Amino acid sequence: MRDGKLVGEHLVKETSRPEIIELMVGRAMDAEYPPRSVKPGELVLSVKNLNRGTQLKDISFDLHKGEILGIAGLVGAGRTELAEAIFGADPPDSGTIEIYGKPVSIRSTREGKLNSLGMVTEDRKETGLVLDTTLTKNITITKLDAVKKGVVISKGLENKVASEYVEKLNIRTPSIHQTLFNLSGGNQQKVVLAKWLFSNAEIMIFDEPTRGIDIGAKYEIYCLMNTLTEQGKSIIMISSELPEVLSMSDRLLVMHKGQIKGELTGQDMTGDKVMELVIE
Amino acid sequence: MNQKRFIDVVRNNGIILVILLLIIVTGIIERNFLTFNNLLNVLRQVSVVGIVACGMTYCIIGGAFDLSVGSVVSLAGVITILNINAGVNEYIAILYGLLAGVAVGVINGVLISLIDGRTGEAFIVTYGMQVVVASIALFPSNGLFISGRISDGFFKSMGQGVMPIIIFLSIAIVMEFVLKKAKYGRVMTFIGGNMDVAKMSGINIKLNRISYFIISGVLAGLGGVVLCSRVTSSNPTAGLNYEMDVIAAVVVGGTPMSGGSGSVMRTVMGAVIIGIMSNALNILGITAYHQQIVKGILILIAVGMDILNKQLKLKEMAHVKVFA
After folding, report:
1. Which sequence spans correspond to the domains of chain B?
2. Looking at CA atoms only, how far is residue B187 from chain A in angstroms?
3. Angle, CA of A239, A244 and A245, to the nearest 5°
4. Cβ pair A94, A60 in contact under 8 A
């Protein structure tokens, strides 16, 4: 089905994935994942010996400018816990974090945000967006100071910001005053992205960025991720979808039971190697 | 389209229509009701509850309740009058009363933030504080009612004439402005709307929430000070069951109990409606006990409309689906 109409009916063995995708989206898709051409640069984030209770054990890794660092693993491996530890939502018990070479202490999400971190959460409906308020308000919440005129929040400035991001990210909505409840998953996710772009996050953590999003919109999100890294931002991408994390990552960390089991690059980034690392 | 707009107007502003209707009907039944003096009286009578209700509005919009306000009203009154009787400078005495409210607010806020409490925990913690503070209010005067030896001055003027009304309305106007126009207010609606989203958007949840309880506490203290100025005495149980009237004003005003949105001016209107209702019932000769029943029905209607409003909104939203 597409747009409320039945667009095709096939026997499974007589059709193919590309044909199904074409029927779903309305046009042929050359590839499900856009090509990446960014060469990672200097070190932006360095995590050393992060520990938190039984959830995170001695985690160490680096992130470079313009890089997409994937984190794969089974559900419960501790990936979201790691993200929350770095972002400040659930600070670690011990370990160090360095951003651009400087040690930082992040004990709250506010400090995380001030240190140029941003987090696109796993469940945008529960923890990413306030669904019953407008698109505009959901974007500006991360840096209200930037839309103030004196002591007062300026509706004009807010609307300008929202319109900019609607255009930049191609958010399909009848208006910037639309309640997010009515937007599709892909467009909702773009609003979450917009709010972190607005706060000038340089290091963005994406936790299951395309969950609950249809194939056409997924591609758009991948393209956006590429664009962001071209602009110098760095991304940590947590994903349970192996094809996605294998195609989009420059490097891949594999986590299991709170530990990093290994790192894969280049030719080694395959589903088999990931599984090898997971199954001790 | 015009029909839809009209229904929206009624839904959102029905409360003003209710007030007007009430005034007109009561005025017809009893002409004395519509005198300037009487209406001013009504406003004065709701001022104390109104001041406290402004603070409660912030708490509710921010996703919590403060059940300790009644006890703070009592405590602040006791502290202020005792200090004045002991010869302390009246401004300092008032300050002590307000500080009592701040202290209770800090304790409420810190406890609730520490346990990362939601609405339920807020209920329990502030209820516990209500009991504790009520007992504390009994100590200084051994539970006795104390007459105030008040000389002319600022404190005396607080409870007389139009002063309570001015205090009430100025506070409401400032708080409404902050709520609707300032960063602080926007953050409040997010914290009350979805605390997890607020946290994950880089907002300092703890500090903000503590401030809501402090504001509620200090306004309860102010209410207590104005009250004991009006009655020129201290009653250690002055605020008994006050929280019910205060919450009623917020509910009738139309601020949703689920938090995330609301208006202080609406709470003002809610307090006024309840005041007019009480006044009208008095004039019509209806006894206090029956008045409680009427008050209860009014609250039920307000809550019912809140729920209905919400369901209608959900239904509307479900019909307007935007395709990718």
Report:
1. 2-311
2. 8
3. 55
4. no
Up-side HSE of residue A213: CA atoms within 13 Å toward CB? Answer: 24
pTM: 0.91
Q: What is the ipTM of this complex?
A: 0.90
A-chain CB neighbours of B322 within 8 Å are: 172-174, 178, 182-184, 187
Distance CA A58, CA A77 (A): 14
Of the candidates B196, B197, B321, the beta carbon closest to that of A182 is on B321
Give the list of residues 6+ apart from residue A71 with CB closer than 8 angstroms, or none: A79, A82, A236, A237, A238, A239, A245, A252, A253, A254, A255
Element (DSSP H or E) covering residue A120: strand A117-120
* Helix, strand, or coil (residue A187): helix
Fold of B2-311: ABC transporter involved in vitamin B12 uptake, BtuC (1.10.3470)
Q: Encode chain B (324 residues) as per-residue pLDDT tens digits.
A: 455 566 666 666 666 677 777 778 888 887 777 788 888 888 999 999 999 999 999 999 999 999 999 999 999 999 999 999 998 999 999 999 999 999 999 999 999 999 988 889 999 999 999 999 999 999 888 888 888 888 888 888 888 889 999 999 999 999 999 999 999 999 999 999 999 999 999 999 999 999 999 999 999 999 999 999 999 988 999 889 899 899 999 998 989 999 999 999 999 999 998 888 888 878 777 777 777 887 788 788 888 877 887 788 778 777 766 655
